[in-house]
Design brief:
With 557 residues, the protein is of the alpha+beta class. The protein has 13 helices and eleven strands. Strands 3, 4, 5, 6, 7, 8, 9, 10 and 11 form a nine-stranded antiparallel β-sheet that branches. Helix 5 runs antiparallel to helix 6 and helix 8 crosses helix 11. The longest helix has 49 residues. The N terminus is likely disordered.
Length: 557
């Protein structure tokens, strides 16, 4: 009897694990339906229509009016469609008594445009019907996609998965559990709500939350649900707490010339240049307009100008961040953002390798950000001694970079731009190379990013959690605290995933993520206190002004 109980428990565990895997695939499948506009073949569209018809009939029996159902489905659709102004159920359903699993309906429907082929409306309609019937929508959607040929075909064509994919799945569970736990402990949802209500924006380079009259912050109910976000401009991002996991090189180049000049000598010129009218407004890309207006990043006659060759490195930084999960609660996600580094000969005052601060387009200033004196913020580097040098790449007459060497990760497809979804939609470039993108922190993406070295030219991926980064600053032996033997880890190798797993055990990742939360909450609290005090002050000033007018009128009378 005990043996049968153990067998039943094992089978239940296997079924639960299988469901987790299928739901993960389902969500990727849904994302593909929205992002790529998945179309169904002649047989698959009839099967999908049959499932939608059955789901609608159950929802109708549960009291959902047809007009309400159609409006809900239309509101749920995310993929843009130029001609779609409504969702009409008759275009997606079968007639009464038709069953493609028992009847051959392909001949009868071969010349008919309905049921339509787009997959997304079927998934949306089935989900809404299930929700109205108080059934888990994933159950009904899984029942449909399992019957589609593209479901099994996608499985055969997917990445080759190792026989044992539990390490990636376990790492995903650990990262999501950590983020959810920290979010709950710190009541992070309340902080997000408070930030959303204030007039503020997040300065990515300085990690500062500042008040602003420009309502530019893009607050999303969730950047990963129901689809993944891949086009958030970095100056309009919401400050989800995040830490870097990996930097992947996407482009490496040797440039004939950079222009650099001391920031302190340029500040007084910025205002004069703006007053002259000969230069473009802050944040405008460098170009001639009617042969007159041009950028004033570093004028050709700038004081202290240095004209030198150097190297440039464009990285994709993969970051672990805490975001709304789309179904209530907060969870983990992988954020991608660009990172630019430059390198110069040590003979120069600014020699060495530096991260470029204050922008990704090295011909323009930030659009929203202003310095403390109100002037523009241009791309710049900071030396070890604290000196700031403004940076510019003078383009060739044809608009190209002055490169002697240039290597891109995907030269035939995305070039040095990111593919926002490298798992489901590889080699499909995003809109702008400086846009942020988000994906779930799930096993396909963790396996994709963290189990490769990503070499490019002489560069490889950089993991901040590599043991070598702690050799000089670990006198207390922090990296070895609560540390199991390497051979007992999910990743006993020397991969990036192994480094991250080690730093989950020793608590360094948790500590750093907590520090990011503390920093955000402290700034939010300070900004909120200033806002509350200011709004009270302004309201009281209005009341006093009106009261004064009333008193003066009484005196005159």
């Amino acid at each position: 009897m005990a043996r049968k109980t153990n067998i039943d428990e094992d089978r239940a565990a296997q079924r639960a694990a299988q469901r987790v895997t299928e739901i993960e695939r389902l969500h990727l499948f849904e994302h593909g339906a929205v992002r790529s506009g998945t179309k169904l073949g002649p047989r698959d569209r009839l099967k999908a229509a049959y499932h939608l018809t059955c789901a609608w009939n159950k929802a109708k029996e549960a009291g959902l009016p047809k007009t309400d159902f159609q409006e809900l489905v239309f509101a749920r659709l995310r993929r843009a469609h130029g001609k779609r102004e409504e969702f009409r159920l008759t275009n997606w359903a079968l007639r009464r008594g038709e069953d493609p699993f028992k009847q051959d309906l392909t001949v009868a429907y071969q010349d008919k445009r309905t049921p339509h082929k787009a997959l997304e409306p079927y998934l949306a309609g089935i989900a809404i019907a299930a929700e109205h019937c108080e059934v888990d929508p994933d159950d009904w959607k899984l029942a449909m996609v399992r019957d589609l040929s593209i479901w099994s075909r996608q499985s055969r064509q997917a990445d080759v998965v190792p026989p044992d994919d539990r390490p990636a799945e376990t790492l995903a569970i650990l990262l999501n559990a950590l983020c959810a736990e920290l979010a709950q402990q710190n009541k992070l949802g309340d902080t997000f709500d408070a930030i959303d209500r204030m007039g503020c924006r997040w300065e990515l380079f300085g990690e500062r939350l500042v008040a602003t009259d420009q309502a530019c912050m893009d607050f999303l109910k969730s950047p990963i649900s129901p689809v993944f976000e891949d086009c958030i401009y970095f100056e309009e991002m919401f400050p989800f707490p995040s830490i870097p996991l990996l930097r992947v090189p996407y482009a490496v180049g040797k440039l004939e010339v950079f222009h650099l000049a001391p920031e302190a000598l340029l500040r007084t010129l910025d205002g004069e240049d703006m007053v002259s009218g000969d230069y473009l407004f802050f944040g405008t890309p460098a170009r001639d307009v009617h042969g007159r207006r041009r950028d004033f990043n570093i004028p050709d006659d700038a004081p202290g100008l240095e004209v030198v060759p150097g190297d440039i490195f464009w990285f994709r930084e993969i970051r672990l961040c805490i975001v709304p999960g789309g179904r209530g609660g907060l969870t983990a996600a992988l954020e991608s953002r660009p990172r630019v580094e430059v390198s110069f000969d040590e003979a120069h005052e600014f020699g060495g390798r530096h991260q470029v601060i204050g922008g990704y387009q090295i011909d323009r200033s930030l659009f929203y950000k202003r310095a403390e004196d109100g002037g523009p913020v241009f791309p710049h580097i900071r030396t070890k001694g604290g000196d700031v040098w403004r940076l510019k790449i003078p383009l060739r007459p044809d608009g190209s970079l002055p490169c002697t060497e240039w290597t891109e990760r995907n030269p035939e497809t995305t070039g040095w731009m990111f593919e926002p979804d490298p798992v489901m939609n590889p080699r499909a470039a995003g809109y702008e190379p400086w846009d942020l993108s988000y994906t779930p922190a799930t096993q396909p993406y963790l396996r994709h990013w963290l189990t490769q070295n990503w070499p490019l030219a002489d560069e490889t991926a950089v993991c901040p959690w590599s043991p070598g980064n702690f050799l000089e600053d670990d006198s207390e032996g922090r990296q070895y605290e609560n540390y199991p033997p390497s051979y007992e880890l999910n990743y006993p190798d020397l991969s990036h995933a192994s480094c991250i797993e080690r730093c989950l055990h020793n608590g360094l990742i948790e500590k750093e993520l907590q520090a990011q939360i503390d920093n955000l909450q402290s700034q939010a609290q300070g900004l909120q206190a200033s806002w509350h005090a200011a709004r009270e002050r302004h309201s009281n000033a209005l009341l006093r002004r009106w009261k004064t007018k009333s008193d003066e009128k009484d005196i005159d009378q």
